[in-house]
Amino acid sequence: MTVVLALADAQLHLTDLVEHVAAGEEIIVVKAGQPIARLMPVEPIEQGKPAHPRARTLQAGFNDPASTQVQWAVTA
Fold this sequence. Notes:
The chain has 2 helices and 5 strands; from the N terminus they run E-H-H-E-E-E-E. It is an alpha+beta fold. The protein folds into 2 domains: 1-41, YefM-like domain (YefM-like fold); 45-76, no CATH class.
């Protein structure tokens, strides 16, 4: 089942949405009536392998308010 949800509602209910996605639902997020994102379950991954060939990992301290830059590192 696919659910369509406004961005503002998605922001308020992200934890619940992730639970629904984990149960197999797909969620389309819209902004101003236009689809902007799709939340969908991922396939199980083998231990030690990235979820996707282009998966990225946030570096430690990315959410530090004093930090002025978010750094990304490619894990694959």
